[in-house]
């Protein structure tokens, strides 16, 4: 499925094309390659978000590719800033019964916290040069792994000690990996979240906020969470994901995120500005480098100034 939202064109007839690539049926974000001929190529983040900031107005063919998924070509008539939401289907396994090839296997796995048994979301599972991230259920899939030879599986996640194991399998196999809490990593994450919270206090607007522990009580999309909180569908004037301006996506983007994959949600002015932070992003902000200030000025040409 492809969903497009289009805003006004700029005076220079250039536009921003941004959005999210997700897996069909699960809505898991996919770190896909997005290519636009004569414009450029960008790699989507781990949650599938991408942004092409300087696209000429006109007709373009966008090619979206990702390992393990069917390639898609999307024709876009860019008339102004545009948000695109693209679902990719898992690629079928091709069987060649004539040509003999080096045997490869698929390694699937489930990552969980040893202390609680809960699935770990967005953990990185790496086998050689191939990597996958766990989905909402804590599951990953790494394809084209050499079969019949020892391979090292490395699994890591924020605020948890990494695990490493060696497996040898002649056929597709499934493993379970338990990760232990890392108190130092958790303390660094807590410090980062506190720094994000302190920044939000400087904004002269009413504020609602949910951290991970509170978000885990609401197994639903962010759109549904805000609907429950405010009794209406929230269409933010300014929307940020990991400090990246994704305003064009609006409520459609809110519907693509579930509470389990986020570390913190901030809402200002009862929905005027919404800011989403993933666990991985928050962990990277634990250092001493100050965060850029939050700014939202209403009444500007075009509606609002957000950053």
Give the structure's gist in a few sentences.
With 307 residues, the protein is mostly beta strands. Helices cover 14% and strands 44% of the residues.
DSSP helical segment count = 5
- Beta-strand level of the residues, as a percent range? 35-45%
In percent, how helical is the residue content?
Answer: 10-25%
Largest sheet: 5 strands, mixed
Mean pLDDT metric: 84
- The low-pLDDT segments are none
**Terminal residue distance:** 30 Å
Radius of gyration of CA atoms, rounded to a whole number: 21 Å
Structural shape: globular
Spatial order of strands in the largest sheet? 16-19-20-17-18
Q: Kindly name the structural category.
A: mainly beta
Would you report the number of β strands?
22
Order of SSEs, N→C?
Answer: EEEEEEEEEEEEEEEHEHHEEHEEHEE
Structural features, described:
With 307 residues, this protein is mainly β. Helix content is 14%, strand content 44%. It has five helices and 22 strands. The strands form six sheets. The protein has a five-stranded mixed beta sheet with strand order 16-19-20-17-18. Strand 13 (151-157) and strand 14 form a beta hairpin. The protein is globular. The model has no long low-confidence stretch (mean pLDDT 84).
List keywords for this structure.
mainly beta; 14% helix; 5-stranded mixed beta sheet; 4-stranded mixed beta sheet; 307 residues; globular
Give the topology.
Blueprint: E1 2-6, E2 14-23, E3 33-36, E4 40-43, E5 49-56, E6 58-65, E7 72-78, E8 82-88, E9 104-113, E10 124-127, E11 130-133, E12 139-146, E13 151-157, E14 160-167, E15 173-179, H1 183-201, E16 207-211, H2 212-215, H3 222-230, E17 238-241, E18 244-245, H4 250-254, E19 262-268, E20 273-278, H5 279-283, E21 296-300, E22 303-306
């Amino acid at each position: 499925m492809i969903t497009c939202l289009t805003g006004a064109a700029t005076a220079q007839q250039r536009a921003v094309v941004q959005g999210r690539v997700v897996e069909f049926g699960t809505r898991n974000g996919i770190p896909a390659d997005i290519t636009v001929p004569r414009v450029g190529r960008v790699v989507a983040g781990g949650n599938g978000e991408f942004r092409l900031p300087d696209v000429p107005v006109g007709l373009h063919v966008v090619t979206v590719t990702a390992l393990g998924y069917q390639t898609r070509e999307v024709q876009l008539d860019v008339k102004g800033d545009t948000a695109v939401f693209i679902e990719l289907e898992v690629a079928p396994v091709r069987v060649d019964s004539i040509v003999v090839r080096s045997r490869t296997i698929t390694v699937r796995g489930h990552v969980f916290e040893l202390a609680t048994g809960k699935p770990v979301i967005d953990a990185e599972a790496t086998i050689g040069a191939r990597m996958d991230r766990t989905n909402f259920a804590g599951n990953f899939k790494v394809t084209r792994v050499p079969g019949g030879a020892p391979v090292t599986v490395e699994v890591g996640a924020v605020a948890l000690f990494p695990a490493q194991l060696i497996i040898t399998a002649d056929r597709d196999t499934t493993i379970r990996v338990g990760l232990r809490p890392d108190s130092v990593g958790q303390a660094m994450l807590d410090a980062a979240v506190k720094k994000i919270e302190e920044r939000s206090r400087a904004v002269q607007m009413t504020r609602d906020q949910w951290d991970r522990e509170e978000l885990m009580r609401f197994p639903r999309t962010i759109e549904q969470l805000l609907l429950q909180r405010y009794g209406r569908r929230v269409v933010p004037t300014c929307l940020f994901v990991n400090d990246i301006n994704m305003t064009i996506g609006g409520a459609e983007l809110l519907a693509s995120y579930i509470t389990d994959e986020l570390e913190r949600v901030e809402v200002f002015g009862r929905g005027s500005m919404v800011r989403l932070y993933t666990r991985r992003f928050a962990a990277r902000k634990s250092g001493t480098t100050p965060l850029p200030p939050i700014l939202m000025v209403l009444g500007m040409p075009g509606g609002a100034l957000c950053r």
